[in-house]
Write a structure and sequence with these properties.
130 residues; homodimer; 35% strand; mainly beta; four-stranded mixed beta sheet
Chain lengths: 130, 130
């Protein structure tokens, strides 16, 4: 059972006080993790209702790993826990924005960069630029 | 025919110079639009291969509207065109980050706020906070 309501209409969805996420067919919403202090986008991931509820309850980012098909407490093994300082939702409530402070070594990406978005399109190719 | 290659292996996907987006089953990748000057997250949308190719070619953000099932040049009717100053891709190339300068009135959200993420979770409810 999802702990979240469904918005009864467009106005409630867009302007309401109720967090009524529009989970997709797989039961997921997109989540953007942005560094609370620098504004840098760290990663993009997905949340199911449990991940979102746990994030709100604990103040630590939880996601849903689509590759492992399992709840994913970010940083549980890497130490890169994400303390959530603010949670926002977008107009049609199918995307969540987390402002976070990464713990451990301060990184977020499994490849070893601080942010997953470490490659810039530059004159026809991708260039690594942290 | 997609104008983009498929990465031959994990290393090419994660560290390669080739933009090889991993479009989902619907042929889409997620795109985050971040204000180039303020770092504010403006919106989250989707791109198909044509939208991504046009964005790279023109330097103006193009998306794919899932509700209209059509290519969407953001701002074509509202004037809120997004000039792209930088395009990044994430480690596994299923998400794109655009740094943009919104034109027109400087906004990005159809509800009338500058950013689509105008609601903050605050003590058990959503509060509008621009």
């Amino acid at each position: 059972m999802t702990p979240f309501p469904t918005a009864p209409d467009k106005h409630a969805l867009e302007r309401g006080e109720a967090l009524a996420p529009r989970f997709n067919g797989d039961g997921l919403v997109v989540a953007i993790a942005q560094h609370a202090d620098t504004g840098e986008i760290l990663m993009l991931a997905w949340m199911n209702d449990t991940a979102l509820a746990l994030t709100l309850e604990t103040g630590v980012a939880h996601y849903f790993s689509r590759s492992r098909n399992a709840l994913w407490k970010k940083g549980e093994t890497s130490g890169q826990l994400q303390i959530v300082t603010e949670l926002r939702v977008d107009c049609d409530q199918d995307a969540v924005l987390l402002k976070v402070r990464p713990q451990g070594d301060g990184g977020a990406c499994h490849v070893g960069f601080r942010s997953c978005f470490y490659r810039v399109w530059d004159d026809g190719r991708l260039v690594e630029r942290d």
